[in-house]
């Protein structure tokens, strides 16, 4: 079970995590993109962290505000995608004071559906979706096996890391990296790396 306070802790941890890993994410983006993914994510999540001193009716209200803030501060491809993720996550959590593992699963699924609708990526396109898709599957499987929020998120984060590693040999079919064609192969996708960090942060702080 997770509460609004846990979501606050998550978003605070996320800002610290993105700051800590900004250089690494930007390094990945310099190989197959425009070398800004780390600074984009650090800037956006710092703006989200600045929202955390206000009070919110529930986690859904905070996540909605976080999503709008990411859209307006990050820009590029990842701003609208992560922004949509948080905005859509809010839907299934509306009015819930206690977030059970299945509730969070529904929220994660809604968020990832938003990413897909917006970015139109499919599995194997070498995007953040290649981390999200196995993460959702692992999360649901863990919940079915009786795991709580924390255990299910740990399973999701591990699956995301495998998905991230699996992007290395792929040729990008979406986003800037796709402009490189075959030369995009041999590098990890930066968005799949930030998605893994986001889920690792959630596993540390929620549940
Ligand atoms: P930009 O490419 O505009 O500079 P970022 O560098 O912040 O934006 O983010 C790049 C990441 O966004 C990529 O590594 C990839 O994971 C993700 N991405 C790009 N386009 C798409 C898309 N259409 N669907 C899903 N993810 C995408
Ligand atoms: Mg970039
Ligand atoms: Mg850019």
TrEMBL record:
GO MF assignments: kinase activity
InterPro entries referenced in this protein's UniProt entry, alphabetically: DhaK_L_YcgS, DhaL_dom, DhaL_dom_sf, Dihydroxyacetone_Kinase
Regions that span the bilayer: none
Superkingdom classification of source: Bacteria
Keywords: Kinase, Transferase
Pfam family, one: Dak2
Keyword set includes rRNA processing: no
Domain DhaL: residue ranges: 5-204
Protein name: Dihydroxyacetone kinase subunit DhaL
Gene name as annotated: dhaL
């Amino acid at each position: 079970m997770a509460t609004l306070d846990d979501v606050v802790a998550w978003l605070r941890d996320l800002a610290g995590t993105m700051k800590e890993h900004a250089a690494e994410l930007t390094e990945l983006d310099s190989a197959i993109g425009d070398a800004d993914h780390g600074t984009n994510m650090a800037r956006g999540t710092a703006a989200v962290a600045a929202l955390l001193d206000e009070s919110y009716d529930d986690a859904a209200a905070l996540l909605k505000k976080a999503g709008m803030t990411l859209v307006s501060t990050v820009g590029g491809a990842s701003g609208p995608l992560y922004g949509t993720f948080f905005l859509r996550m809010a839907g299934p959590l509306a009015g819930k004071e206690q977030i059970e593992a299945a509730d969070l699963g529904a929220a994660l699924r809604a968020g990832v559906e938003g990413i897909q609708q917006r970015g139109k990526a499919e599995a194997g396109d070498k995007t953040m979706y290649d981390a999200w898709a196995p993460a959702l599957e692992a999360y649901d499987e863990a919940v079915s096996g009786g795991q709580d929020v924390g255990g299910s998120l740990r399973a999701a984060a591990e699956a995301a890391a495998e998905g991230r590693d699996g992007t290395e040999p792929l040729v990008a079919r979406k986003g800037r990296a796709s402009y490189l064609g075959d030369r995009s192969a041999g590098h990890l996708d930066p968005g799949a790396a930030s998605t893994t960090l986001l889920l690792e942060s959630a596993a540390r702080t929620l549940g």
